[in-house]
Design goal:
Length: 396
Amino acid sequence: MRTDPMTRPDRSRSRRWPAVTATLLPLAPVALAHPGDHAAALLLALTAAIAAVVSLLPWPLGRVTLTTAAGAVAGASLLVDLCYPGPYRLPAFWAPFEWLGLLGVLFRAVRRLPDRWVGPIGGLVALAAVVLPLRFALRTPQGGAAGPVGGVLFCLLPVLGVAGASLYLRVLDARRERAVARARREQRLEVARGLHDFVAHEITGIVLEVQAGQLPGQDAEETAALLRRLEEAGLRALDSMDEMVGALREDQGAAGTTRRLGLADLPELVARFGTKGGPRATVDLAPEAVGLLAAEAQATAYAVVLEALTNVRRHAPQATEVTVRVAPEPDGRGVRVTVGDTGGPAARRPRLRRRPGAGGTGLAGLAARATAHGGTLTSGPLGPSGWQVCCTLPGR
């Protein structure tokens, strides 16, 4: 059922009613003051009313921010303390209203002000609330020192309590914001890893296949096989993109970011790599190694193999053989994954052409992931012209 806009309640107006009431309440007794004290009474009432309004209204209000409003309230209160011209009895009536308003301003200032202003403005408001009793006590004839000291101490404890409570809530708000930012960053990194691990791998294969298809001497059968491989690689890339886009939807969150693949999926990956007209690829997977790693570590091992195979396509088109070995460590407490190519004659396939400075971050990111699991990742030459990537990961 829709509400008529003419009869819809104005929420902003309803939020301002407490501020209007807080303004009128201190102003109402001004008419009851002695005729000669109306000016002083009005000054005290306005100071109390402004403190109450600032503590209740939503900020920013137009161009006026909470920083400006809180600073103005504290400055006005301290100025009246110094320059109040009226009889000493009047502050005793309006001081409680102003004091409560200053406590409300202090609470909002410490919790909501920017970091650069929370100390100066919060301290100024707290000072105004603590010394407010001196407006009355210092002007009392023959009052002595006990009254001012007692009033300051009486106000100090609530001020410290309000400041501590608002500071605690500010810390909780900051922690919540950092947790949300961390979750978003982790989700972005997970999506970026998925783009790099899966989509970039397939697109690299597609580009190299297209470059190879441009070479002369291709017959109809080879062209048909090439197109089938391109179609399969494109569909796999689309599936990966669909999964990552689905992970960004609000109803799924970061839990379903990308597919979780492990050591058991390596034979399929290596077999697919070897059927694309590149170097001959073999895998030596020890069955007992699969159960030694947790799911997260297995996903990292799979990503290492995927990145190493992608780098073979990009940087070693002359390679003739690629070997993937997965075996337990000699002490049985971890798994070692190695991917090596034997090199070969000068380029027998077209080299992947990329813009200068592109890439170069895959192994660095995987090294960080391996380190996070307590493992290591190294790479270096293998034989006269080959290259090897080696990753060790601790067991469960």
